[in-house]
TrEMBL record:
One of its GO terms (cellular component) is plasma membrane. Belongs to the annexin family. Keywords: Acetylation, Annexin, Calcium, Calcium/phospholipid-binding, Phosphoprotein, Repeat. The keyword Calcium applies. One of its GO terms (molecular function) is phosphatidylserine binding. This is Annexin.
Length: 1399
């Protein structure tokens, strides 16, 4: 058995697949990466192959998926082609378009998450749904299967392979596990198995090693070494001997020539060499055979074999049989046969695996699994030719049960063949009775074009009409659905429209559904089909059956005049929205023509944007306006267009729901939507249906239909395609936002993510009760986190007299738990102190309790609270209930482990001592952590739970507590929410009311807590917080417990619910009920960080408003943002508070160097540099040091950006302005720098060029009398920094001086300063800017403009490194130097930037 034998040496069987999973669970790689040991395939080739494979299956082309591992492990190895070569790419395309015929192709509608959920469901409960497991795993290619495994493991916290192993057995299990094993590891497994124990399975060894490509051999060797910690070549040598061993070792070197070109002379020479080494001499020179057959390409070998036959009386294979024996003979024959005809070789291997007594299941599994995605179709053809029976027939006869079904699933899934399908249909309808299952299996999975091809082929092959045969052999809705499938979409729509207008009355819903949702091309085809079928124009019938504006709308749609451009124009959308508003809401009466013209002629994408803009304009939806302004069918038709445009999947989900709601089913509509959308967006409709109605579309169809008709509709739903809806919507959103930014000065307005329907979120949210918003934490990982720096800051805050509480709050409240633990570890490692002990000794009261709580994991904190609640006299049941009744399964498990570790006692044991009765039973049931993780459930399940709760309580005398305990502790949260809703429908009041009637004391409180926390956990904790603070006194333990435990989960939502319920802000209530550092710490934990430029802009505005300016908040808001973020804030501020600008407000509300620093922060780096250069040259004199510092240290692109900013800011040319203020060689140097021609340092350095430049500089300076400054200027201003670094090294070899020393001795004044600056920046930029920072503060007075420039421009580059270097060079911190040289808000602003530099 594969399961038992797939083990590394010495490993226990049970643990093997855990190890295997860890080996093959590689990180996702883009197409072409090829996976470990695989030949790389270009992304374009991969995309082409995938598209061809899907087209061959009858699907629309699909984009290549991110690859978990490569599936290009093509087992036709001797066909040549080096990795990435045209030959290999050709071989990839041949997989689908030429010689190779796979039987398994990528699933057209692949969704790893959905497949994982289906498999999880298949494993749950009594028994395993083997049929579902087979249907999923045998219809997905390897990369899809591995993606399913990854999704399963991630979503359910389980190991898919372990579950598979536990739920299946025998050959069936071995086959499924092989399907989940990357191919190099699968080959490695079979080789290891073949050589393990007594004896060697040489047939397997030969089959694998003799038939793999170089790339595959390398991949197998790597996998073998990784999985078994052994060398494959060493094992082969130890298990074989003689020439056979030599052959295998030669093949394992992976040195086969790869290329399709054949040298005829070389081939003839090899044929002669083989002839002379065998037949023409006494004895055999085996080395010649081995050398040629192990190293020549398959194309070359085929020619060699043909040439050999001309030299000898018989074939090359016959010679091998005569000249060799035993395993060497088998190995050489395997190579020869594989080269001649690879599919025939494997067909023979399969035949031998099944003939006679018993079956070689390992070989059968290996070949089917490894070839089904490559060339199993070819192998099947050769099998039939050679043995007169199909491979499927042999497999059916030699296998049984699920194993047989799974194998046939891999073998029978072939490419579309209309002749084969026509034969199968004829057979299904021939004779007595009809095989309806076969009709469903064929027609339910084929595309429209394929079904029409089948119809034509059927008519030609049997001179019979397939339609007539279907009519005569079937009946009812099943017949109607089959006949519908055999029509083109246009024919079906035409017939539906005809039925809608003929006879008495008109079915307007059909007219609207079809005409309002079809494209121009579809409408044209419908009109043609209508005329062909009914010999009259549809317009005529439509005019007769409709009237007024409604008729005008439908006729306009029928003209097919809608623009089908995919481009969008937000400005036009705004104009259209205004026109619609003016035509309706803004006037007496309604101009219907404007609505009709806009909604029938604008492109779909454009209308989506128009509706969004209309909502912005009116503050309500356009649908509401249409309902107000229109009436009757015109209103319904316009709303149909709006809903279809907004979300086609949502619209059709609603149509389907209406068709099946109430008594009876509208089968015409049901068939029309499912069949016409099956190849478009039915899968998205399916997801939307579940999202809106809390019931799967399949379940609804199953309950409303029956028999063969039901099976056919379900087949169509299960094999539906996604279409481009989701991808198009996401792309449209990006374009929309981009244009909005353009129209709003780069600022994205609020609510500018398009909300095109519920299925857009891909989340199952029941329509029947309000969904909970996604959790929002108030404490998140700090993006610029540095554990060592935080540890130093905390030590400094607690050292000496007094404690800097503000710093403690800043470091600990603004870090996630993982970051706080990293700080704790750094504190202990770097300072040899215990952070927790220091916190306890340096703080007190509730502030200390809160800090200590922050230093625990959630599980440790919960465990501590529980222990405290049970310790001493009495038990605090409120704490027990709040924690145990609101924690998830995973949290319960973690807190039990933490409890055991912290208190060396079992939680359950302590609970048993402190509680009793049904209350204890409930708590112990919660401690078992048996709550289901599966979010999926059916309405029937929810109803059953509601009924069970009702029967256990309200409907009987007495109460069955066990039912309540079982359901409320074991069902998933999602299912319980559904059950609560169903319970309310059943009895007209909430479950909590029933619990309060039926239960008492702690059991009642606990059950109500479970229900309320599940119904709306945010509201539950908001109420608990309110109770902890209302009235006299504060329950600080509860306040700390909830704030600390929820701050990294959902405190943002709790705060929102708090405001909604109690009409006051949580932070404000905390502020009123607490004090001091404790209050400030809690406020930091409950307040959310601002997440948008608009929020920052509002904060800045509050800083400027009123008397005085809040400099502290102003500094904090701007320092914690990057330059790019500050630019977004600037744009948002200027837009929101126009005509005010943030620069004007900074200038008017602040002063001095503080103002200058703030203004510097509000510029881009290039603007600030341009401003600094302008300041350095204006007025009398020139600040040469500033010019040198900026121009000599910036890259080429940065210089160009500075020039452009200078032109925009001052409407002048920077080169000319600077040139007017300098002269001589210095002027030439700056002019050369200002061209911005310095190359990127990422470009590789040419050593020869560096040597040449070093020689040129030596000759221009030290090597001559006088100095050629031009050579220095050219080389040092136009070469990359990396190149100059190499030049410096080469110069040192030529001269006894460094290049910097040479410049100092050869140059003078500013030219020397500038060139020396370049050398210093090249050698060590951090040291250069550190020295510049020191220079700004050295001596009398401080160069504040230079200091500001240093701090601001290096803040997002290397300021943290400059800070560290400053301490090394000058023996004190940069912060201390700034503190001694500056003061006030200016000092605090600089210190904030230095202490928390952007990284």
């Amino acid at each position: 058995m594969l399961m038992a034998l797939l083990l590394p040496p010495g490993a226990a069987p049970q643990g093997y697949f855990d190890q295997m999973a860890s080996h093959h669970h590689h990180a996702a790689m883009p197409a072409g990466a090829g996976g470990p040991g695989y030949p790389p395939v270009s992304a374009a080739t991969h995309a082409s192959a995938m598209a061809q494979m899907n087209a061959a299956a009858g699907g629309s082309p699909i984009s290549p998926m991110t690859r978990t591992t490569s599936t290009s492990y093509i087992a036709s190895p001797l066909s040549g082609g080096a990795p990435g070569s045209p030959a290999l790419q050709h071989r990839m395309s041949m997989m689908v378009g030429g010689a190779n015929k796979p039987t398994l192709l990528p699933a057209r509608n692949f969704n790893a998450e959905m497949d994982a959920k289906a498999l999880r469901k298949a494993f749950k409960g009594l028994g395993t749904d083997d049929r579902k497991v087979i249907s999923v795993l045998t219809s997905r290619v390897l990369e899809q299967r591995l993606a399913i495994k990854q999704a399963f493991d991630a979503n359910f916290g389980r190991d898919f392979v372990k579950d598979l192993r536990g739920e299946t057995s025998g050959d069936f299990r071995d086959l499924l596990i092989a399907l989940l094993t990357p191919l190099p590891e699968l080959d490695a497994f079979y080789l290891h198995k073949a050589m393990k124990g007594l004896g060697t399975n040489d047939t397997t060894v030969i089959e694998i090693i003799a038939t793999r490509t170089n790339g595959q051999i390398r991949a197998i060797r790597e996998a073998y070494s990784r999985v078994y910690n052994r060398d494959l070549e060493t094992d082969v040598k130890s298990e074989t001997s003689g020439d056979y061993r030599n052959l295998l070792v030669a093949l394992l070197q992976a040195r086969r020539e790869e290329g399709k070109a054949v040298d005829a002379a070389a081939a003839k020479a090899d044929a002669t060499a083989l002839y002379r080494a065998g037949e023409s001499r006494v004895g055999t020179d085996e080395n010649v055979f081995i050398s040629i057959l192990a190293t020549r390409s398959s194309e070359h070998l085929r020619t060699v074999f043909d040439d050999y036959a001309k030299l000898s009386d018989h074939s090359f294979e016959k010679t091998v049989e005569r000249e060799f024996s035993f395993n060497i003979q088998a190995g050489l024959l395997a190579i020869a046969k594989h080269v001649r005809n690879a599919p025939l070789f494997f067909a023979e291997r399969l035949y031998k695996a099944m003939k006679g007594m018993g079956t070689d299941d390992s070989t059968l599994i290996r070949i089917v699994v490894e070839h089904c995605e490559v060339d199993l179709g070819n192998i099947k053809d050769e099998f039939y030719k050679a043995y007169g029976q199909t491979l499927e027939t042999f497999v059916r006869g030699d296998t049984s049960g699920n194993y047989r079904t799974a194998l046939l699933g891999l073998i029978e899934q072939d490419t579309f063949d209309p002749e084969k399908d026509a034969k199968a249909l004829r057979k299904a309808m021939k004779g007595v009775g009809t095989n309806e299952d076969k009709l469903v299996d064929i027609l339910g999975v084929r595309k429209t074009t394929q079904r029409l091809a089948i119809r034509t082929t059927y008519d030609q092959m049997y001179a019979r009409d397939l339609i007539k045969d279907l009519k005569s052999e079937t009946s009812g809705n099943f017949q109607q659905a089959l006949l519908t499938l055999m029509m083109s979409p246009a024919e079906f729509d035409a017939r539906s429209l005809n039925r809608a207008v003929k006879g008495l009355g008109t079915t307007d819903s059909v007219l609207m559904e079809i005409l309002c949702t079809r494209s121009n091309m579809e409408l044209k085809a419908i009109k043609e089909a209508y005329h062909k079928e009914f010999s009259k124009d549809f317009e005529t019938d439509l005019k007769e059956d409709t009237s007024g504006d409604y008729r005008t709308l439908l006729l306009t749609l029928l003209q097919g005049q809608r623009s089908e451009s995919t481009a969008i124009d937000v400005a036009q959308a705004k104009a259209d929205a205004t026109a619609l508003y003016n035509a309706g809401e803004d006037k007496a009466g309604t101009d219907e023509a404007v609505f009709i013209r806009t909604l029938t002629q604008r492109p779909i994408n454009q209308l989506r944007i128009t509706f969004e803009e209309y909502a912005r304009l009116c503050e309500y939806d356009i649908e509401k306006s249409i309902k107000r302004e229109m009436s009757f069918n015109l209103k319904k038709a316009l709303i149909t267009i709006v809903r279809y445009v907004r979300s086609a999947p949502d619209y059709f989900a609603e149509v389907l729901h209406e068709a099946m709601r109430g008594i009876g089913t509208n089968d015409d509509t049901l068939q029309r939507v499912i069949i016409t959308r099956a190849e478009n967006d039915l899968n998205a409709i399916r997801e939307s249906y579940f999202a809106q109605y809390d019931e799967s579309l399949e379940a609804a169809v199953e309950s409303e239909t029956s028999g063969d008709y039901k099976r056919l509709l379900l087949k169509l739903v299960e094999t539906a395609l996604d279409g481009d809806y989701m991808r198009d919507t996401e792309a449209l959103t990006m374009i929309y936002q981009e244009q909005l930014r353009g129209l709003n000065n780069g600022v994205l307005p609020p609510n500018s993510t398009l909300g095109f329907g519920m299925c857009n979120s891909r989340v199952a949210v029941p329509k029947t009760f309000k969904p909970l918003a996604p959790p929002r934490a108030t404490v998140k990982p700090y993006p610029r986190f540095n554990a060592d720096e935080d540890a130093k800051a905390l030590r400094k805050a607690m050292k000496g007299i007094g404690t800097n509480d503000k710093k403690l709050i800043q470091c600990l409240s603004g870090r996630s738990y993982e970051q706080r633990m990293a700080v704790k570890k750094a504190y202990e490692t770097n300072l040899s102190r215990d952070l927790l002990k220091d916190l306890r000794s340096e703080t007190s009261g509730n502030f200390r309790e809160c800090l200590v709580a922050l230093m625990m994991s959630s599980a440790e904190f919960d465990a501590t609270c529980l222990n405290k609640a049970m310790k001493g006299l009495g038990t605090d049941d409120t704490v027990l209930i709040e924690i145990l009744c609101t924690r998830s399964k995973q949290q319960i498990i973690a807190l039990k482990n933490a409890y055991r570790t912290l208190f060396t006692s079992e939680l359950e044991a302590d609970l048993t001592k402190e509680t009793s009765g049904q209350y204890l039973k409930l708590l112990l049931a919660l401690c078992k952590a048996e709550r289901s993780d599966n979010p999926q459930y059916t309405t029937e399940e929810a109803k059953a739970d509601a009924q069970a709760l009702y029967k256990a309580g309200e409907s009987k005398v007495g109460t069955n507590e066990d039912v309540f305990i079982e359901i409320l502790t074991q069902r998933s949260y999602e299912r319980l929410r559904g059950a609560f809703f169903e319970y309310t429908k059943l009895v007209d009041y909430h479950l909590e009311k029933s619990i309060e009637r039926e239960f008492s004391f702690n059991l009642k409180r606990a059950l109500v807590t479970i229900v309320r926390s599940i119904r709306n956990g945010y509201a539950f904790f908001a109420e608990r917080l309110y109770r902890s603070m209302k009235g006299i006194g504060t329950d600080d333990a509860s306040l700390i417990r909830i704030v600390v435990s929820r701050s990294e989960i959902d405190m943002g939502n709790i705060r929102e619910e708090f405001t909604k319920t109690f009409k006051q802000d949580l932070a404000a209530m905390v502020k009123g009920d607490t004090s001091g550092s404790y209050r400030q710490l809690l406020i930091e934990l409950v307040e959310e960080e601002r997440t948008s430029p608009e929020e920052d802009a509002k904060l800045l505005r509050t800083c400027f408003k009123g008397l005085g300016t809040n400099e502290d908040k102003l500094s904090q808001a701007l320092c914690l943002r990057t330059t790019a973020q500050r630019q977004m804030i600037l744009n948002a501020y200027n837009q929101m508070y126009a005509p005010r600008t943030i620069v004007q407000d900074i200038k008017s509300e602040t002063s001095g160097q503080y103002r200058n620093t703030l203004l510097a922060l509000m510029m881009t780096r290039s603007e600030y540099d341009a401003e600094s250069i302008h300041e350095s040259i204006k007025g009398l004199g020139t600040d040469d040091s500033t010019l040198i510092e900026i121009l000599c240290t910036r890259s080429g692109p940065e210089i160009k950006a500075i020039r452009e900013s200078f032109r925009k800011l001052f409407s002048k040319d920077m080169e000319q302005e600077v040139g007017d203020d300098v002269s001589g060689d210095f002027k030439q140097l700056l002019a050369s720098l200002m061209k911005g021609e310095r190359p990127d340092s990422n470009r590789p350095v040419n050593p020869k060029d560096a040597t040449a430049d070093a020689q040129a500089l030596y000759k221009a300076g030290e090597g001559k009398v006088g100095t050629d400054e031009a050579a220095f200027i050219t080389i040092l201003t136009q070469r990359s920094f990396a190149h100059i670094r190499a030049v410096m090294d080469e110069y040192a070899k030529l001269s006894q001086n460094s290049l910097e020393a040479a410049i100092s001795s050869e140059m003078s004044f500013n030219i020397k300063k500038a060139l020396t600056t370049i050398i210093k920046v090249v050698r060590d930029p951090v040291e250069y800017f550190t020295a510049r920072s020191q220079a700004m503060m050295k001596g009398l007075g401080t160069n504040d403009s230079g200091l500001i420039r240093m701090i601001v421009t290096r803040n997002e580059v290397d300021l943290s490194q400059i800070r560290d270097r400053y301490l090394q060079l000058y023996g004190k911190t940069l912060a201390a130097a700034i503190e001694s040289e500056t003061s006030g808000d200016y000092m605090r602003l600089l210190l904030r930037m230095v202490e928390e530099p952007q990284r």
